[in-house]
């Protein structure tokens, strides 16, 4: 059903006959015809023949009569393909009756672990966690839709030396008061107060040290206090996830502490395999491929000189668990780019240890920072980290105000719902519509604009489609034949048929901006169609065909946005 692929499959045998071996016909959208193949150009060099002659021979051999209205050789040796209206209509009609919109379920479903969000207990989630949560959730949604077994792993930072001071501060504050403060989301205040005491007060420092030892030793009273801290933070994070409308739930918390018992066996195995080397009193792996500026191999510290295990050891244990016990073959780590080196070293070490062997593979799904309007790291007015809830609440408030202004007929409840969908949608789309490796500037005006490459623009296109059906009091007939004839109808039909290819590409690259760009192109093609081709004022088969085009466009927009975690209200 994917048009590029259909054309490519038809051209391939003709190219193979001319070349005497398999050739990728490289079919792409084109300005000059619907599609273009430029494979003859590269082939010409290999066969030492004129590219135009090759293209002409392919044209004569290819069986395209039922699909194409015209196949022409152009320029230095391109093949220009114009799809026949009839064929285009049949393909879109088939899409309209397919609940999966042309996107097949994976032939070989895999177990995929998506490690994302991963905030730290008793610390405010920062905008980096926002990006991880938004991108990771899109990955989980997409891969699940394709039929993979997705395991969401929220690698909560819930272990380590800071817990000594956090627990002591909890004791000083009084459990009830501290719990109150934490459940309100005053995480940073709590952390900062603990830190200040730790820095200034020798006795407090000593108590904190003893607490860490007690925690690691499993002292029941200490463990109870630690659980309290973790539970309060988890509840708070869940309220953020709820506001952000992501699929993470309580069952997905896989804190660092949950790998505690796997640390010693993991490190023992590294030792058995002869991969450990002592360096400055610490046990380290020196994975291949990681060297410092001085050209010396870089150590991944798995056991510190004080005998404790840290972040790298936990990631090694978690990875070994994910492939070995969960049987995952694809491991995604949705974490900011500053941790790139860490993951390279973890993956290389795991490879050496045999915990990450084909078909299993790991990918660091890295991303850049969110910048403020001044082009620098986003900071609060006081200069600290921006509180995520504040940011999300502001998005929803702004979008609700805009919705009220634009559409005074919306009732109170509906305006609130639209405001949430648009505000949160705008935040997610701003994040997902740019190349994730790059930083981006948080710009309220731009991301909430109704025109441009924004969530509201796409949501608006969807609501317009729904309003056509509301106004007409009709539904599209699923069996209606789509017969595109006008250029704007043809352009829309061709965009619709491109959905499966984009989904397939993004499932591999996890570069969601390709899906976003596609949806924006689709919505633009829809607006052009809607301007030029009257729908409700047409009649008979034309009316039915156009209604079917509207319906299937609405479904692709809905599904595409749903994969990005963005809602599509019926009215804006
Ligand atoms: N908690 C870490 C942080 O805030 C992110 C953890 C990412 N996941 C992992 N498996 N290391 O930076």
Automatic annotation (TrEMBL):
Q: Cross-referenced CDD domains, in alphabetical order?
A: Anticodon_Ia_Arg (cd07956)
Which GO molecular function annotations are given, in alphabetical order?
arginine-tRNA ligase activity; ATP binding
Where in or outside the cell it occurs: the entry states: Cytoplasm
Ranges for domain Arginyl tRNA synthetase N-terminal come to 1-83
Q: Report the EC code(s) recorded for this entry.
A: 6.1.1.19
Enzyme class comes to ligase
Under catalytic activity, the entry for this protein gives: tRNA(Arg) + L-arginine + ATP = L-arginyl-tRNA(Arg) + AMP + diphosphate
**Domain DALR anticodon binding positions:** 458-572
Provide the GO biological process annotations.
arginyl-tRNA aminoacylation
What is the protein name given in its UniProt record? Answer: Arginine--tRNA ligase
Task: Please give the organism.
Answer: Micromonospora humi
């Amino acid at each position: 059903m994917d048009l590029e692929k259909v054309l490519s499959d038809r051209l391939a045998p003709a190219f193979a006959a001319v070349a005497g071996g398999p050739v990728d016909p490289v079919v792409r959208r084109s300005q000059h015809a619907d599609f273009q193949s430029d494979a003859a150009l590269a082939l010409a060099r290999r066969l030492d023949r004129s590219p135009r002659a090759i293209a002409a021979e392919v044209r004569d051999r290819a069986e395209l009569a039922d699909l194409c209205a015209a196949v022409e050789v152009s320029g230095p040796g391109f093949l220009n393909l114009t799809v026949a209206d009839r064929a285009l209509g049949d393909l879109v009609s088939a899409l309209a009756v397919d609940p999966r919109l042309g996107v097949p379920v994976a032939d070989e479903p895999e177990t995929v672990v998506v490690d994302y969000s991963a905030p730290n207990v008793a610390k405010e989630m920062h905008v980096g966690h926002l990006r991880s949560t938004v991108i990771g959730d899109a990955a989980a949604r997409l891969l699940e839709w394709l039929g993979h077994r997705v395991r969401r792993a929220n690698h909560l930072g819930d272990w380590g030396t800071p817990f000594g001071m956090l627990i002591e501060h909890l004791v000083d504050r009084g459990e009830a008061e501290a719990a109150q403060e934490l459940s309100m989301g005053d995480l940073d205040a709590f952390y900062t107060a603990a830190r200040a005491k730790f820095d200034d007060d020798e006795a407090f420092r000593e108590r904190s040290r003893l607490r860490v030892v007690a925690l690691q030793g499993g002292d029941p009273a200490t463990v109870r206090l630690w659980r309290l801290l973790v539970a309060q933070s988890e509840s708070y994070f869940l309220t953020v996830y709820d506001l952000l409308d992501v699929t993470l739930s309580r069952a997905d918390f896989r804190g660092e502490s949950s790998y505690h018992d796997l640390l010693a066996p993991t490190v023992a195995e590294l030792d058995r395999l002869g991969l450990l080397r002592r360096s400055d009193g610490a046990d380290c792996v020196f994975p291949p491929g990681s060297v410092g500026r001085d050209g010396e191999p870089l150590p991944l510290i798995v056991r510190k000189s004080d005998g404790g295990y840290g972040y790298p050891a936990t990631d090694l244990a978690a990875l070994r668990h994910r492939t070995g016990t969960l049987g995952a073959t694809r491991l995604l780590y949705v974490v900011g780019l500053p941790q790139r080196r860490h993951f390279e070293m973890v993956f290389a070490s795991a490879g050496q240890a045999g915990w990450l062997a084909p078909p299993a593979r790991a990918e660091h799904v890295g991303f850049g920072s969110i910048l403020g309007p001044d082009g620098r790291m986003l900071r609060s007015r006081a200069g600290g980290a921006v509180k995520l809830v504040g940011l999300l609440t502001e998005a929803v408030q702004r979008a609700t105000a805009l919705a009220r202004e634009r559409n005074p007929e919306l009732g109170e409840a509906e305006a609130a719902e639209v405001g949430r969908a648009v505000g949160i949608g705008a935040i997610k789309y701003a994040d997902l519509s740019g190349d994730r490796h790059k930083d981006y500037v948080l710009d309220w005006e731009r991301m909430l604009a109704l025109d441009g490459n924004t969530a509201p623009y796409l949501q608006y296109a969807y609501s317009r489609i729904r309003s056509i059906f509301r106004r007409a009091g009709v539904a599209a007939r699923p069996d209606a034949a789509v017969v595109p004839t006008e250029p704007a109808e043809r352009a829309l039909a061709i965009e619709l048929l491109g959905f499966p290819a984009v989904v397939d590409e993004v499932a591999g690259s996890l570069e969601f901006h390709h899906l976003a760009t596609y949806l924006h192109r689709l919505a633009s093609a829809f607006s052009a169609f809607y301007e030029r081709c009257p729908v409700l004022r047409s009649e008979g088969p034309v009316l039915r065909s156009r209604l079917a085009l509207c319906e299937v466009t609405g479904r692709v927009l809905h599904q595409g946005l749903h994969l990005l975690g963005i809602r599509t209200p019926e009215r804006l």
